[in-house]
Amino acid sequence: MPEHQTTALRTRERTAADGATAVAHPNIALIKYWGKRDERLHLPWTSSLSMTLDIFPTTTSVRLDAEAADDEVTFNGSPASGEERRRIAAFLDLVRRRSRLTHRAVVDTRNTVPTGAGLASSAGGFAALAVAAAAAYGLGLDDAGLSRLARRGSGSASRSIFGGFAVWHAGTPTAPPAEADLSSYAEPVVAGDLDPALVIAVVNAGPKEVSSRAAMRRTVETSPLFEPWAASSRDDLTEMRAALLRADLDAVGEIAERNALGMHATMLGARPAVRYLSPATLTVLDSVLELRRDGVSAYATMDAGPNVKVLCRRTDAERVAEAVRAAAAGGGTVHIAGPGQGARLVDESGR
Ligand code: DP6
């Protein structure tokens, strides 16, 4: 039985509970998701593949409140507001429509990504919310269903439902929306014995000028480099799956690095250009090249920001961390992550 079907047996309760708590971790894409073909359903142009981390969990509880007139959302102890609150409320509306329950919810989210660490929290955040809300409203979803649901909060969250490596299928591009929606979800990827680490170099923790959502849209609409990258990304995915299967860390790293640099090239080709990479990013990228010259298998990937994540063997992680810390001189922090678990229900204390 494929691994994802085994995990699907963790099917969540079908009857609405008073409340549920879930924990989920962020993931870093080795084959990037960049560009939506359907903005409302969060359907991507290309499939992507990531590693879920074992650091920075988000714990979210959802409790139904039959008396409340509106959802109450608390984020790290303070009431959520603005865009953050709007996205969570919209997500709960979707869950309510599916459950046919109208109850409002009290949502409490605790995110352990250090403030300003420059790591997106939406993947772990919406994965935890999807698992907790689906249980609280009694949707009775298996893991593929939870992945589809998490996708509606944030595309990359579809992958954080699973631990280790996960692939998010773009789904059938030509299908009508309902069918396309069903065909786009993540599932675990079979990998050999890699023992990888991701060393995360935070070179700038400040807020970004352009949100990833807006940057993605602008790239698809205006960059002449988007289509060629999307085509090559499809080939990268095929090669990546083979490299993971044979536990070839150098091939995994090479493919991940070129895929990420290609994604940033599509942004530089947008009109006006979106440039997330800073001088400090390039300095860290130089240190990764230097490590390779010294015989260390180290490969970089970057998301919608200037920070660099370096894939390496776990046994090399301290050395890589030291090198990138020195390169990022003065600014920033370095974190070491390994492969982590998928999103899951926990008791109220988070265990
Ligand atoms: C660069 O998942 O944050 O990190 O679907 O609009 O919420 P939305 O976008 P989001 O985008 C992540 C983009 C990326 C690459 C990746 O994680 O695959």
From TrEMBL:
<dbReference type="InterPro" id="IPR053859">
    <property type="entry name" value="MVD-like_N"/>
</dbReference>
<feature type="domain" description="Diphosphomevalonate decarboxylase-like N-terminal">
    <location>
        <begin position="24"/>
        <end position="172"/>
    </location>
</feature>
<feature type="domain" description="Mvd1 C-terminal">
    <location>
        <begin position="199"/>
        <end position="327"/>
    </location>
</feature>
<keyword id="KW-0067">ATP-binding</keyword>
<dbReference type="InterPro" id="IPR041431">
    <property type="entry name" value="Mvd1_C"/>
</dbReference>
<dbReference type="InterPro" id="IPR029765">
    <property type="entry name" value="Mev_diP_decarb"/>
</dbReference>
<keyword id="KW-0456">Lyase</keyword>
<dbReference type="GO" id="GO:0004163">
    <property type="term" value="F:diphosphomevalonate decarboxylase activity"/>
</dbReference>
<keyword id="KW-0444">Lipid biosynthesis</keyword>
<dbReference type="InterPro" id="IPR020568">
    <property type="entry name" value="Ribosomal_Su5_D2-typ_SF"/>
</dbReference>
<keyword id="KW-0547">Nucleotide-binding</keyword>
<dbReference type="InterPro" id="IPR005935">
    <property type="entry name" value="Mev_decarb"/>
</dbReference>
<comment type="similarity">
    <text>Belongs to the diphosphomevalonate decarboxylase family.</text>
</comment>
<keyword id="KW-0443">Lipid metabolism</keyword>
<dbReference type="Pfam" id="PF18376">
    <property type="entry name" value="MDD_C"/>
</dbReference>
<dbReference type="Pfam" id="PF22700">
    <property type="entry name" value="MVD-like_N"/>
</dbReference>
<protein>
    <recommendedName>
        <fullName>diphosphomevalonate decarboxylase</fullName>
        <ecNumber>4.1.1.33</ecNumber>
    </recommendedName>
</protein>
<dbReference type="InterPro" id="IPR014721">
    <property type="entry name" value="Ribsml_uS5_D2-typ_fold_subgr"/>
</dbReference>
<dbReference type="InterPro" id="IPR036554">
    <property type="entry name" value="GHMP_kinase_C_sf"/>
</dbReference>
